[in-house]
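Exam revision sheet. Question 4 asks you to relate a sequence to its structure. Input first:
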Amino acid sequence: LQRFLEIHEHDDAVWNVEHVPQWIKEEVKDEENEDNFKTFCEKLSQSDALLGVTDFKWARRYIGLAILTWVIAGVACTGLELLFKSPPLVLLTISVGIAVTVAFATFAVEKTLPTITGNTFRLHSIIFVVLICG
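Answer key, C-alpha cells:
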C-alpha cells in the first residue's frame, strides 16, 4: 500500500509540473481579456433559461394589463347589471374578463419564472380558463 501511495504521489507531482503552469498562463490571459468572459456569460445565459431572465419589463406590462383587464371587467359587469339587468350577459362578460386576466398573468409568470413554466403550465392555464368559461 505504501508503494502504491508513493507511485501516485509521484504521478501527481509530474502532473502538476506538466499541466498546472500552462493552466496558470491561460488563466492570466483570460483575466487580461474580459471580453472572453463576457462572451462566455452571454453564451451561458442563452443556453440556460434561468440565467437569461431579462424580460421583467414585459412581465410588469403583462401584470399591469391583467390588473387593468380585471378592473375593466368589473366595471363592465357593474354597468351591464345596472343598465340591462341581464345575468347571462354579466356572466359572459366576467368570464371573458377572467380568461383574458388569466392569460396576461400566465404570460407574466412565463417571463419571470421560465424554469418552472412550460407547456404543462400553459396547458394548466388553458384548462383553468375553459373550466371558468364552461
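Marking note for examiners. The chain has a mean pLDDT of 80.
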